[in-house]
Design a protein that fits this description.
The chain has about 300 residues and is α/β, with parallel strands linked by helices. It has a domain of about 200 residues. It is about 50% helix and about 20% strand. A hairpin with a 2-residue loop joins strand 6 and strand 7. Helix 1 runs antiparallel to helix 2 and helix 2 runs antiparallel to helix 4. The chain is globular, with a radius of gyration of 19 Å. It starts with a helix and ends in a 7-residue tail after the last strand.
């Protein structure tokens, strides 16, 4: 459905303008909020765990804002497609550039808060070589036109087919890192069929994250950054890179604990960001398990 809407919006924008498409996307998101009760329940449940001292009405208001903020991404993609100028406030760029000069590449842990797709495209326009790894769920969201947009901006897109062996192509990722490139993976949405996950405390419960970013950093020796791309206005973003995190272990037996500690540090960062920008949490499926289930 999202792929159909994206293609519809792309076609419509050529004739009626981005602002009309943005208004239509707002109407569509309202329909989703009204009729997709399962998605609304999961959002309310998530916000209830994130802000346990607030009312259910507060969680529902955040879910409303979440659905409509997500719709705004359609218009932002179209503005990028039309080469409209974007403003970026950058935190941690000096650290990223310093890490890149080491020649080992950089592993970016991106998230489903803000826009990982727009972040990858704007980073590439800033001169960073980007490889974006997507699992089966991201593949469902990023249809042919969006992948063409990413590749048109020079971002290498690798789409996994699902399963433990296809979480990422290790050889390809290592080659790209050793060439000084940035390899981006999300951790807050494990790939379908992925068995290598790590449990962390997050948003008042327990979440299982993909271990892939930290496993890649360990194998490659590349520095790792937590990377967040938050929308601060129309065609305005704030990029925050936290790091570098360097995973070094004395033995293979110590790898699991090193990954667990690093994943928990990321989860702590992610929760702090989501608390500041709750409407930009764009994950509509269950990630967090609570002891007491709160429903909408």
């Amino acid at each position: 459905m999202r792929g159909f809407l994206y293609r519809l919006f792309v076609g419509a924008s050529r004739w009626v303008g981005v602002w009309i498409v943005a208004a239509f996307a707002w109407v569509v998101s309202t329909g989703y909020f009204v009729f997709r009760r399962d998605r609304v329940r999961e959002s309310v449940r998530f916000y209830g765990g994130l802000f346990p001292d607030r009312s259910r009405a507060h969680a529902r208001r955040l879910a409303w804002r979440q659905f409509h903020a997500f719709a705004s991404l359609f218009a932002e993609r179209l503005r990028l497609r039309a080469d409209e100028p974007f403003e970026m406030e950058e935190e941690g760029r000096d650290a990223l550039e310093s890490a890149a000069r080491e020649g080992k590449g950089v592993v970016l842990v991106m998230s489903h808060v803000g826009s990982w797709e727009i972040a990858a495209r704007l980073l590439r326009r800033r001169g960073f070589r980007m490889m974006l790894h997507m699992g089966a769920r991201e593949r469902e969201q990023v249809e042919r036109a969006q992948k063409a947009d990413l590749r048109g901006d020079g971002v290498e897109v690798v789409v996994a087919g699902g399963g433990e062996g296809s979480v990422f192509d290790g050889v390809e990722a290592l080659r790209f890192l050793r060439g000084g490139g940035f390899v981006s993976l999300s951790a807050d949405r494990p790939r379908a069929g992925e068995s290598r996950t790590v449990a962390v405390r997050f948003a008042g419960g327990t979440a299982r994250l993909s271990a892939a970013p930290w496993a890649l950093a360990l194998v490659s020796g590349a520095p790792l950054f937590h990377f967040f791309a938050l929308r601060t206005g129309r065609r305005r973003y704030r990029f925050a890179a936290s790091g570098p995190v360097r995973l070094e272990v004395a033995s293979r037996a110590a790898r699991q604990e090193a990954i667990r500690r690093a994943a928990q540090a990321y989860a702590d960062d992610l929760e702090a960001v989501v608390r500041r920008h709750p409407e930009q949490w764009y994950s509509f499926e269950r990630l967090v398990e609570h002891e007491e289930t709160r429903t909408g």
